[in-house]
From TrEMBL:
GO cellular component, one term: cell division site
Residue numbers spanned by region Disordered: 1-31
Secretion signal, residue range per the UniProt entry: none
Membrane topology, as annotated: Single-pass type II membrane protein
InterPro entries the record matches: Cell_div_FtsL, FtsL/DivIC
Family membership: Belongs to the FtsL family.
Keywords assigned by UniProt, alphabetized: Cell cycle, Cell division, Cell membrane, Membrane, Transmembrane, Transmembrane helix
Transmembrane spans: 46-64
GO biological process: FtsZ-dependent cytokinesis
Main location: membrane
Protein name: Cell division protein FtsL
């Protein structure tokens, strides 16, 4: 003999008649139900559309920002390269000035031009 708990589990569940579980065709839906449902469907469509448009705008703005940033980085690299080139040119010119202003060279050019050195008129100037 089965215990009462098992008997309840084995016993078939009562079912409702088919007419009560399925809606009757041709019967109107409750008042206001369709209008509320349509409003929510429209609201959901609007929210999804707005979300997709927002995502698209954010994507396009991100892409535009990346392009601008890349262009600015390239311009910065060009300026840095120009700065390095100008620095090297300045160093070369300073070295050339040092070579051309050597005392030996100046004395040699002065002798070629027939100039004489008068020690009384010489002044030492320091930078």
């Amino acid at each position: 003999m089965a215990l009462p708990e098992y008997r309840a589990a084995i016993a078939p569940q009562p079912t409702l008649p088919k007419e009560q579980t399925e809606p009757i065709k041709g019967q109107p839906e409750p008042k206001g139900y369709k209008a509320v449902r349509d409003r929510y469907v429209k609201l959901e469509k609007f929210a999804i559309t707005l979300t997709l448009l927002s995502a698209l705008v954010v994507l396009l703005l991100s892409l535009a920002t990346q392009v601008t940033l890349s262009n600015q980085n390239r311009a910065l690299q060009d300026l840095q390269n120009d700065s390095v080139a100008i620095g090297l040119e300045n160093q070369n010119l300073e070295q050339e000035v040092q070579e051309l202003s050597r005392y030996d060279r100046i004395i040699e050019i002065a002798k070629e031009l027939g100039l004489e050195m008068n020690e009384a008129n010489v002044r030492n100037v320091t930078r």
